[in-house]
Design goal:
The complex is a heterodimer of chains A (514) and B (366). With 514 residues, chain A is of the alpha/beta class. Chain A folds into two domains: 150 residues, 3-Layer(aba) Sandwich (Rossmann fold); 280 residues, Dihydrodipicolinate Reductase, domain 2. Chain A is built from 16 helices and 17 strands. In chain A, the strands form three sheets. In chain A, strands 16-15-14-13-7-12-11-8-17 form a nine-stranded mixed β-sheet, with helices on both faces. A six-stranded parallel β-sheet of chain A has the order 3-2-1-4-5-6, with helices on both faces. In chain A, strands 9-10 form a two-stranded antiparallel sheet. The longest helix of chain A is centred in the C-terminal third of the chain and has 19 residues. The radius of gyration of chain A is 25 Å and the shape is globular. Chain A starts with 13 loop residues before the first helix and ends in a 9-residue tail after the last helix. Chain B is of the alpha/beta class. Chain B folds into two domains: 193 residues, no CATH class; 156 residues, Dihydrodipicolinate Reductase, domain 2, CATH 3.30.360. Helix content of chain B is 29%, strand content 34%. Chain B is built from eleven helices and 17 strands. In chain B, strands 1, 2, 3, 4, 5, 6, 7, 8 and 9 form a nine-stranded mixed β-sheet that branches. In chain B, α2 packs across α10, α5 crosses α11 and α9 packs across α11. The radius of gyration of chain B is 23 Å and the shape is elongated. The N and C termini of chain B lie far apart (49 Å). Classes of the chains: A alpha/beta (514), B alpha/beta (366). Chains A and B meet through α1, α4 and α13 of A and α7, α8, β16 and β17 of B. The complex binds NADP nicotinamide-adenine-dinucleotide phosphate (NAP). NADP nicotinamide-adenine-dinucleotide phosphate binds next to α2 of chain A.
């Protein structure tokens, strides 16, 4: 029939959709979630998809297929998801909308270690292409234990599912952790790339889905007043803090294997470091942004294996008080070894050996059971070369703080004259809470990332060389710590161990109190 | 999230005739907290509203509700130029919101300011002389006429000359036809940019209709549309006319004839790429301004229809009796606050709107 169409009747839906007011809606497609009976699926993925669907951001022809070993029917799976959603937003889930959404949610019980699961899945997806118009497009979301990733990828590849059906696309989503050191990350990446091209791979670091993290780029690259100062000419040093007030909760077993370095520093903190230090990208697209981030990671000076003690501090919390509550120490937590040396706190001193940052130390730290939850970047500027006032030795330097959470904003510490006779200078903090300027409801990070995934935009996902470079920076620390028993303790509710203070004090500097 | 914000409304005791300096000082005083600290002012735009005595309280409400999403300096002008006596009365208020619940949060306040000016007699004929000096520098100026009023083009209208963007409401008038023609004329003049709340209200409908044709196998159907049927409530006429104008201009239909149908309904005939297209507009909806859109091609029918409770909307595609696709989503709110908010997001000319509006004007001229 298409052949008989006259050319002037060949309109595409773009004539209706090409409009800045209308949201961009992805092509039809199916999302397969491996690990569908798990926590991430119910708490994050399905709520995000439901929100996207109700806000008309998903295509009409869309389907979700959950896979895990637990035996459930489609309906049992849907009921389970609905229950979690109800718990999250009491009374706010509309029956009619949920019914319409969950009609496109399916469940397929199966062990991802077994080949027959993939044959079944393949047939089921083909059926959906016919019945629900998903057009051979598939996104495979690996939301099960990371130890299963290589097997799932291999089996997908062997079943020929690394390519979309009938010219459709196939994309693979990988949750952190991306390996546990450089070697395993490389192995994982190589394993995946035997079947999937890098352009098909979407590594999720949900930090990048946060509006406030993206705003670091907006702040740097849409304002001409900051950028000229953003270099070794004017910057004395940079401090990046990712602090949590919570402990490890019930995830003792997981945390014993991970630790703060793997759980936070390798991904979230390195990403914030990249966004802080990177050169302006040529374009805000996947290659432009990710290329610049990798350049930063590549130019981070590697810490010599025998000097790790001078550049890194491993800390662990003991009992203490956090926000009016007495909490136990790490070694007393459930599923934690009584002599555990796992890091719940990390402080590092890094250098970025490039034209812009030569000689500027980046002090970075991340930890649990610190006094409050805060993520911030503090740029401390050099002192003025000469101050013509009495007592000028005590003049404090300017500090520009970019706060990512909780209260997003910028604050600048500047010197001002104290009113009255004489010429006394005092520091004043100027707060610009640009975050609070817009009280918009911020979309959840997963919502943003899942939409980008369906749209095929990998800008906010992590490329293989990013994960590998980040591990490469941390590998000497990991291996040196593995061979030592030395841990610096800090009471819960403090800003970290004394050793961490010494790390910066040796350079004549000190940590800020965020 | 909105729940994490508490707000506080503050009004200044003074009032009456005030000078510009008195107004600025009064507003700064309103931002002062009990402990003497000054609440930060965050502003992304200026919003001037021209209204009358009767609707002023409701407008003030809408403006306060906007201050969270679009922190601005709002100037509400209640004007009555027909009074003989000159009168000028100013009152000030600020809406301060506070993010709280964050341990260690600094509790910084952000305040949005509202200036209400009551002008009667000759001053009411020169509102620009009052609004101009009160605008915050370096920020865009939005001018909102909620009651179906409309300024003249900028070269002959002081208020329009102040504004970067005009927000009108073709749904707020009795003679929407004349109004639409007026807007078309104004928008053709190019300055200021024009927006219509009734157009803003169409965004979800337009995106739902576009989604129906998004699958590649259906895109071909767009060229084969034969009929469009729209069910609406009489007050929604301008919204519906714009909708049909949008379809016609996007799909390249040429308007040919118009007849007034029964009970104020209308029927338009277009020549489309593959023959005649008929659009029937029936004002029989008991509730919603726009209740249902049905689009028929040779083979299929496409429908977007609000549920009885109105908050949800269903889309269906049928071939004969066979249901090919269906889904239900939330439609969102059409409160004036939401619609004005949508208009405040946009800067620059909205070419899709302008094309739809010109098409609508052509349809009305048949
Ligand atoms: N939860 C979070 O907030 C979060 C945040 C960031 C990253 N992540 C990452 O996301 C992934 C999933 O986390 P999670 O918290 O959802 O874990 P989880 O609750 O333990 O879920 C794991 C899932 O994998 C399934 N599974 C295990 N072995 C299987 C097999 N052989 N075949 C098929 N299914 C199998 C399990 O279901 P059955 O027992 O029914 O098979 C379960 O549904 C992990 O990589 C984690 O690191 C999670």
């Amino acid at each position: 029939m298409a052949g008989s169409l006259q050319t002037d009747t060949q309109l595409s839906a773009d004539v209706l959709l090409d409009d800045s007011r209308l949201p961009k809606v992805p092509e039809p497609g199916a999302m397969v979630i491996f690990g569908a009976s798990g926590d991430l699926t119910a708490r994050k993925l399905i709520p995000a998809l439901y929100d996207l669907a109700t806000q008309r951001r998903l295509p009409m022809k869309f389907a979700v297929v959950g896979v895990s070993r637990t035996q459930m029917s489609h309906d049992e799976f849907r009921k389970k998801l609905r229950k979690t959603l109800n718990e999250q937003r009491a009374g706010k889930v509309r029956d009619s909308v949920w019914e319409s959404f969950c009609g496109s949610v399916f469940y397929l019980p199966g062990d991802t270690k077994k080949a027959e699961t993939y044959q079944e899945l393949k047939d089921f997806l083909k059926r959906l292409d016919g019945e629900r118009g998903t057009r051979g497009n598939r996104a495979f979301y690996l939301a099960s234990s990371p130890t299963l990733f290589p097997a799932v990828v291999e089996k997908l590849g062997e079943a020929g599912m690394n390519r979309g059906e009938n010219g459709g696309w196939a994309r693979l989503v990988i949750e952190k952790p991306f390996g546990r050191d450089l070697e395993s990350a490389k192995e994982l990446n190589t394993g995946i790339r035997r079947y999937f091209e890098e352009t098909q791979i979407y590594r999720i670091d949900h930090y990048l889905g946060k509006e406030t993290v993206q705003n670091i780029m907006a702040l740097r690259f849409s304002n001409s007043v900051f950028e000229p100062l953003w270099s070794q000419h004017y910057v004395d040093h940079v401090q990046i803090t990712v602090a949590e007030d919570i402990g490890i909760g019930t995830r003792g077993a997981f945390y014993e294997e991970a630790g703060a370095l793997r759980d936070i520093v390798q991904n979230h903190l390195m990403q914030v470091l990249c966004l802080t230090a990177m050169e302006p990208p040529v374009a805000f697209d996947s290659e432009g942004v990710r290329e610049e981030k990798v350049k930063v990671l590549k130019s981070v000076r590697r810490i010599p294996r025998d000097k790790v003690g001078e550049f890194a501090v491993r800390g662990q919390y003991t009992s203490g008080w956090v926000w009016g509550e007495e909490v136990s120490g790490y070694r007393e937590e459930k599923n934690v070894a009584p002599d555990s040396t796992t890091d719940t706190y990390v402080a590092l001193k890094l250098f970025i050996d490039n034209w812009r940052w030569a000689g500027v130390p980046f002090y970075v730290r991340a930890g649990k059971r610190l006094p409050k939850r805060v993520t911030e970047i503090a740029i401390q500027f050099k002192r003025t070369p000469h101050a013509p006032f009495a007592g000028a030795e005590n003049l404090e330097p300017n500090i520009l703080v970019v706060r990512v959470q909780p209260e997003e904003g910028v604050s600048l510490k500047i010197g001002a004259k104290v009113p009255g006779s004489g010429f006394r200078i005092r520091s004043v903090n100027m707060d610009l809470l640009y975050g609070t300027a817009f009280l918009e409801e911020v979309p959840d990070a997963y919502q943003r990332l899942l939409l980008d995934l369906m749209l095929g935009d990998p800008t906010l996902f992590i490329r293989a060389d990013e994960t590998e470079s980040a591990w490469d920076i941390l590998d000497p620390v990991i291996s040196s710590w593995a061979e030592s028993e030395k841990v610096a303790f800090y009471p819960a509710g403090s800003w970290g161990p004394a050793e961490s203070e010494e790390l910066v004090a040796r350079d004549g500097r000190e940590w800020r109190r965020p | 999230m909105a729940a994490a914000v508490i707000g506080e409304s503050r009004s200044a005791p003074e009032g009456g005739a005030m000078s510009v300096e008195q107004i600025e000082r009064g507003l700064a005083r309103l931002r002062m907290n009990e402990d003497g600290s000054l609440g930060a002012r965050a502003s992304v735009l200026n919003l001037i509203v021209v209204t009358d005595e009767e609707s002023a309280p409701e407008i003030a409400q809408v403006v306060s509700s906007l201050s969270g999403h679009y922190p601005c300096r709002a100037i509400i002008m209640i004007s009555d130029p027909d009074e003989e006596r000159s009168k000028l009365d100013v009152s000030l208020s600020a809406f301060c919101s506070l993010r709280h619940g964050i341990p260690g949060g600094t509790g910084n306040q952000i305040c949005a300011e509202q200036i209400t000016i009551h002008a009667e007699g000759p001053p009411a004929a020169h509102l620009e002389s009052l609004a101009g000096p009160l605008l915050l520098p370096d920020l865009p100026v939005f001018l909102w006429y909620p009651n179906g009023r409309m300024p003249r083009p900028a070269e002959s209208d002081g208020m329009a000359a102040l504004a970067d963007r005009l927000i009108l409401d073709s749904g707020g008038v009795d003679d929407s036809e004349a109004f639409m023609r007026g807007v078309a004329h104004l928008s053709a003049s190019g300055s200021p940019e024009v927006g219509d709340l009734q157009w803003a209200a169409l965004s979800p409908w337009r995106s739902l209709v576009a989604d129906l044709f998004a699958p590649p196998e259906r895109a071909g159907e767009l060229g084969k549309i034969k009929r469009v049927e729209v069910l609406y409530r009489p007050v929604g006429e301008s919204r519906v006319l714009l909708f049909v104008g949008w379809l016609a201009s996007a799909l390249g239909w040429r308007p040919e004839s118009a007849v007034c149908g029964e009970r104020r309904g209308r029927e338009f005939k277009f020549s489309g790429p593959s023959g005649e297209v008929t659009a029937t507009l029936s004002p029989d909806s008991p509730d919603a301004r726009l209740r249902r859109v049905r689009i028929l091609s040779e083979e299929c029918s496409y429908q977007v229809s609000r549920h009885r409770e109105l908050s949800d909307v269903s889309s269906t595609v049928m071939r004969g009796d066979e249901l090919l696709a269906e889904r239900t989503v939330q439609l969102g709110s059409f409160d004036s606050g939401v619609l004005v908010g949508e208009e405040l997001r946009y800067r620059g000319r909205d070419e899709v709107y302008e094309a739809s509006l010109q098409m609508t004007a052509e349809m009305l001229d048949l």
